Amino acid sequence: MSNLVVHGGTPLRGRIIPSANKNAVLPVLCATLLTNEPLRLLGVPDITDVRKILDIFRTLGSDVQMDHATGTLDLHHHATTFDAAHHRLPEEMRSSIMLVPPLLARFGVARLEDNVKGCTLGVREIDPHVEVFHRFGGRVERAEGSLLIRCEGRLQANHHWLDYASVTTTENFVLCAATAEGTSVLTNAASEPHVQEFCRFMALIGVRIEGMGTSRITVHGGTQLRGGEFRFDEDFHEITTFLALGAITGGDVVVKNSAPENFPLIDRTFAKFGVTITHEDGWSRAHCAGPLKVQTPFTSNVLTKVEAAPWPYFPVDLLPIFIALGVRAQGNALFWNKVYDGALGWAGELSKFGAHVFQSDPHRLVTFGGNPLTPAVVESPYIIRVAIALFMVAASTPGRSEIRNATPIRRAHPHFVENLRSLGVQVEWTSEE
Ligand SMILES: CC(=O)N[C@H]1[C@@H](OP(=O)(O)OP(=O)(O)OC[C@H]2O[C@@H](n3ccc(=O)[nH]c3=O)[C@H](O)[C@@H]2O)O[C@H](CO)[C@@H](O)[C@@H]1O
Ligand SMILES: C=C(OP(=O)(O)O)C(=O)O
């Protein structure tokens, strides 16, 4: 277990170049297994989920050259072997599920461990994925502690309509469809920036896709896929995180941002807490005139509200970061997680800082912000963005705080502590067995 120890109270100042989005990098890595041609990926972050996938590639016999200093990854999956009895796909990360379609395409079989749940956000269903495998002609059966998925011959193109716009199920559909002969159509597809980025990679290796970024995606599959070179975009989660860190500490943080068109709703959400975001010449900056303050709605008898749901709604993974702002800002705000039913249970940890937060039901939480806070030792659940939210509160509170079990941050944010130090934070990792 690794803990983050921070001496808070210093306003963060400086510039950050964000890393790539883990939730774009991981499906792309899985998709690389669809081609036998060499590939070069640029801007690959040094995060633990990436290391786990690269380890799997090495056990399959792929040629993997990862230069962590430059973020350049050369991959060549030309002579691979797979043994469902012995190979284990990485656990505790959701993206393992997206290794299934390329394994089916290569070996006709894949074995998925039960613990591919990723962050502990409540129920994370596997059934929508199983439905996709079935639709393409896969057979799914229970094995001890895992699922075995098989297919005879090629997957079959099909049309499918999802119950809800699931990110990884959409990506799995596109992966299956790329290998299936003919045209497949997915309705109620997810459209997050990382799903779009993944689709752009698929197009680069030769998959013909229509409707990326919309709720209906059409894939013309079955063609021989090629190699190539692909550079990852900047991560909107990391951009938002550092802007929020600047705002909560009363500092001045500027973050490189090449896609401000993804930010109008995120910017308006910052504004609800008194933070103005500006985008200029490829950089974004957070500015607060005075202490954080929750905006008062014009409608009477309602709370200022942040409502997270599948894109283009406010992104659910950013909700904890804004809960931290809510705790600091004078006034009351309602946070509504429409995606997960178990993502707010950590609110009790905030009270250790002296914050007043009330979880009204599994999906909703109210912050009564602006209380004076004191440093604290808190325990993070296995949720990347909650470890960050707890850190944000600690960083804005003068004195020594400790975020125990902050390791999940390493799943998504490379060089997190180094970045923070460059902004003036006194912070370090401590470990215990
Ligand atoms: C590797 C990766 O990309 N992980 C992301 C991906 O996970 P993932 O693809 O697992 O998330 P899904 O979009 O499938 O949603 C997760 C769960 O939320 C529930 N659900 C979701 C949407 C909905 O309209 N109704 C509903 O009930 C379901 O129980 C579902 O199992 O998308 C999530 C939602 O943006 C993010 O939190 C994760 O960081
Ligand atoms: C929840 C997340 O990831 P995963 O789905 O891999 O757990 C996340 O990236 O915030």
Automatic annotation (TrEMBL):
* Alphabetically ordered keywords of this record: Cell cycle, Cell division, Cell shape, Cell wall biogenesis/degradation, Cytoplasm, Peptidoglycan synthesis, Transferase
Main site of residence? Answer: cytoplasm
Q: Copy the pathway line from the protein's UniProt record.
A: Cell wall biogenesis; peptidoglycan biosynthesis
Q: Which family does it belong to?
A: Belongs to the EPSP synthase family. MurA subfamily.
Q: EC no.?
A: 2.5.1.7
> What is the reaction catalyzed?
phosphoenolpyruvate + UDP-N-acetyl-alpha-D-glucosamine = UDP-N-acetyl-3-O-(1-carboxyvinyl)-alpha-D-glucosamine + phosphate
Tell me where on the tree of life, at the top rank, the source sits: Bacteria
The protein here is known as UDP-N-acetylglucosamine 1-carboxyvinyltransferase
The Enolpyruvate transferase domain sits at: 7-420
Location(s) in or outside the cell = Cytoplasm
Question: GO MF terms on file?
Answer: UDP-N-acetylglucosamine 1-carboxyvinyltransferase activity
